[in-house]
Structure formats: structure tokens, C-alpha cells
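A.,

Following up on our hallway conversation. C-alpha cells first:
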């Protein structure tokens, strides 16, 4: 078993997402988050010999896993999905029939202690999805001031004790013992956060916030949605699976904004900008799927279709 396959991942909403995505078997599709390839393999199974799938992922372990797919209709790009437009243009692709984004973090990333994503294991505080570039969570905490740390934990973790946690982190750093491991961070948050929802670890929100910040996840999502819309051919599908409210709010707002005509109030007699997407629905996992895979419980799938307007 190679390193990329050492931790299993159960793809959430697999059939629902792929069935919503692939409406034209001869088309070209994008899997913006390859992960361990569950969605990609299912998409390939629905494509005709003329179909094509281009997948993206930042994680080198995901890229290693993708090497096991030898299908000539498939290509993998070691890039974030927000770069899809430029990457596809370099391959001569200007339109696609569908874009799938399965957001958040995969089970292998959580379950591999060395990645530093989880408070359940003591490990270096890394949290980068792409371990070949960028600043680790420990490096961010080593340089950021109280205000910046507070904003990250408050805005990305929706943590009401963000200021207290930030002050404790900076005080520890100034005392000569900066937080560099997941166990240290988890213990510090547990000492600082006095109350928490039943069943939730006190460090949950802080770990989520740092992960989102280190990987610029929300900024990438906003750019990726714009790129997907620009690439979609008429009747092409946008399918997005979100796992927390911050992601889903961005997706919901984007689809809603692009699903209505826009009138320029400065030019009331000018034609309205036509809607570019039609929202097709929202879906959550069944009770059976959640029972088999508890990590699916917060997932929300949204589907939209590109209108005829270019």
C-alpha cells in the first residue's frame, strides 16, 4: 500500500453528485478536488470514449493516487481548482460540460497524523493541503499578532472565544514557547475555552479556522466558482458539495446572484443583465449514508445549470 492510499476515504454523495454532473457523456468535465478519486472514477464510468475528465488537486498525495488511473480520457493537474481556467486554456479547452467541487478536507488528510490537521493526534502543526509550498499553521502563529490571529479564528472558525485564544497563543510565544504541535494547540484552547457545545472538542473551531486560513480555502472557492461559470457551456452543470456553513454560504450566494437578472440602476432603460445560472436544487445525505459515514452528516450538495446566455 502506498502512502497516498494508507488512509481510506469514503466519497460523500457519490452517486447523487455524479448523476447531477454528467448529462452529456461525450463532454469534457472538471473534477476540481480529486482527493482519492472517488468522484473521478465514477465520472469516467459514465463518459463515452469521446468524453474527457480533467482533475485538480493541491495535495501531492492525491496526485500520487491519481497516477493509478491510466484511462486516456483522464488528466490530473497539481493545482488548486481556482486555477482551472488558465490550466484548461493551456490544454486548448475553453468550454466544459460540467464542474464538480467537493470542498473541505478529506479523511486521509485528517487521519494521517503527520499532516497536522487533527487535534486527535500530536504532530507538527502544518495543515497545508499542498505540502510543497506555502506557510504552515505553526509559521503563521509564530509571526501573527493578536489582532490577526483573532480575526482568523473568529471569522473562519466562528469562535466566540477567538480573542482569548489569540492572546493566550501570543503570550505563550512571547514567553519563549511558541505553539508548534497540534497537541500543544489543542491543550491551550482547552484551557482557554471554558464552555463548548456538547460533544464538540473545544479545539474544533480553532483547527478549522487555521486550516481555512493556511490554505486560503474561501478565497479559492470564490475564484473557483467564477472560473467554473466562465467555463461552463450552455446547459453545463455546476455541482458543489460543502461541509460547513462558511463554504455553503458562499456557494448559495453565488448561485442565487447568478440566477437572477441584474438591472443597472444607473441606466434604468438599459437591458437587464440576463441570468447566467439556473439553480436546480439542494440535497443532503440520507440517514443511511450518515450512519455508514458520520463525516457526511454536514454535507450539502447544490446543483446549478448554465443558461443559454453566453
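Then the amino acids I'd put at each of the 310 positions:
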Amino acid at each position: 500500500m502506498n502512502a497516498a492510499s494508507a488512509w481510506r476515504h469514503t466519497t460523500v454523495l457519490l452517486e447523487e453528485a455524479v448523476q447531477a454532473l454528467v448529462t452529456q457523456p461525450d463532454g469534457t468535465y472538471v473534477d476540481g478536488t480529486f482527493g482519492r478519486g472517488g468522484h473521478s472514477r465514477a465520472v469516467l464510468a459514465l463518459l463515452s470514449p469521446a468524453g474527457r475528465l480533467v482533475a485538480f488537486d493541491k495535495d501531492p498525495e492525491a496526485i500520487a493516487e491519481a497516477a493509478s488511473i491510466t484511462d486516456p480520457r483522464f488528466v490530473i493537474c497539481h493545482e488548486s481548482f481556482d486555477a482551472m481556467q488558465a490550466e484548461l486554456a493551456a490544454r486548448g479547452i475553453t468550454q466544459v460540460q460540467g464542474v464538480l467541487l467537493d470542498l473541505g478536507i478529506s479523511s486521509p488528510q485528517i487521519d494521517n497524523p503527520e499532516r497536522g490537521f487533527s487535534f486527535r493526534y500530536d504532530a507538527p502543526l502544518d495543515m497545508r493541503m499542498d505540502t510543497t509550498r506555502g506557510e504552515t499553521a505553526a509559521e503563521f502563529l509564530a509571526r501573527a499578532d493578536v489582532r490577526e490571529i483573532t480575526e482568523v479564528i473568529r471569522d473562519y472558525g466562528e469562535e466566540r472565544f477567538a480573542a482569548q485564544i489569540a492572546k493566550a497563543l501570543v503570550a505563550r510565544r512571547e514567553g519563549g514557547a511558541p505553539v508548534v504541535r497540534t497537541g500543544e494547540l489543542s491543550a491551550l484552547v482547552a484551557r482557554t475555552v471554558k464552555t463548548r457545545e456538547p460533544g464538540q472538542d473545544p479545539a474544533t473551531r480553532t483547527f478549522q479556522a487555521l486550516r481555512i486560513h493556511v490554505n486560503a480555502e474561501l478565497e479559492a472557492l470564490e475564484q473557483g466558482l467564477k472560473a467554473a461559470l466562465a467555463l461552463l457551456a450552455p446547459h453545463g452543470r455546476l455541482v458543489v458539495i460543502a461541509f460547513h456553513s462558511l463554504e455553503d454560504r458562499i456557494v448559495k450566494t453565488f448561485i442565487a446572484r447568478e440566477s437572477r437578472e441584474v438591472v443597472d440602476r444607473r441606466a434604468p432603460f438599459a437591458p437587464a443583465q440576463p441570468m447566467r445560472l439556473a439553480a436546480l436544487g439542494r440535497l443532503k445525505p440520507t440517514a443511511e449514508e450518515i450512519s455508514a459515514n458520520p463525516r457526511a452528516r454536514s454535507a450539502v450538495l447544490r446543483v446549478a445549470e448554465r443558461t443559454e446566455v453566453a
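The radius of gyration is 21 Å. Curious whether your intuition agrees with the design.

B.
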